[in-house]
Fold this sequence. Notes:
With 310 residues, the protein is of the alpha/beta class. The chain has a domain at 34-43 and 76-249 and 298-309: Rossmann fold, CATH 3.40.50.150. The protein has twelve helices and seven strands. Helix 2 crosses helix 8 and helix 4 (75-90) packs across helix 5. It is globular and about 50 Å long.
Amino acid sequence: MAVLDDIKQLSQVGVGLFRSPGALLRELVLLARSNPENYYEFLGDDVLEAQDQGFELAEKPLWLNLGYWEQARTYPEAGAALARKLAQAARLGPGDVVLDAGFGFGEQDLLWVGEFDVAKIIGVNVTSLHVEVAKKRVEARGLADRIDLRLASATEIPLDDASVDKVVALESAFHFDTREDFFDEARRILKPGGRLATADCVPYLGEHPSGLINWLGWRRWGVPQVNIYDRDEYVRRLEQHGFKDVEVESIRHHVFPGMHRYAEQRNAGVAMHDARVEISEADVQSCLGVEVWAKQGGLTDYVIFSAVKA
């Protein structure tokens, strides 16, 4: 039965591959190379596929996360709300030296400097496009002395041991090859008592995604299969790699429904700034939209983790 389900879903995917010239080739490249750089270059300046505007609008916020929609009703509000949620979990504050692993276009770094007054952020990212665009945005705001963005890997961080106060990863750690290597690097560069905080996509408790469709999703997005484990296993591995006092908060009910409603509007032709999302209590309770993720990778939990270097 599982094989038949895979074939049915593959046939549906196949229809979409031929809707535009070059779509099939693009998908084959994403699957063959399986790295986040290719996927994010394909996304361009928008979190949603097929909404790339080629950086034509200078005022367009360049968030690349799914957003935290408990109170937010626009995507820029939701993207910022999620960055604040992670900052609070990391206990960001004045004087902190922070390593941001996978900084996207730097939106969160600008927010953390402006709202949390951190002393310095050092960012690492493997996507050349992100580094190039984010550095220009930081320089344009006169913050190059406080935000240092580098083309580098989160599993080989070019910093000295015990050199930062906090390490954060906003919706990026599932890409790291491997996430556990990142844990080791985070522990190495953190000062004694320093804190690691991540906003991460994982399978829901007790779920073990498998099968061809899920594997194709992981390949396409550049997610190593070894990173596919639930929040309980995540905690165990954090502790195994030298962290303690682990805090866990699943926010899936305030992530997936909002992004689902937002994507509906954008895909219907509504511009980012015109899209206002209304989410019913039923949407929240049912975790609307999570079924889409269940069919394409099985990453159906969205969790904020925070832990202290043991």
